[in-house]
Amino acid sequence: DLNMSFERLTSNKAFTNKLWNAGKFVLQNLPSESDYSAWQALGGFK
Known about the structure:
The protein is an all-alpha fold. 65% of the residues lie in helices and 0% in strands.
């Protein structure tokens, strides 16, 4: 028996989305001569 609530799932989804957006922001603001392999790796998780 799992004790899950819709409110908790919604808040966890919002938190995960914030982490995703923070990661995208950091990777988009790296200098242009940076290695973009990390960005390509993140793109595979969508």
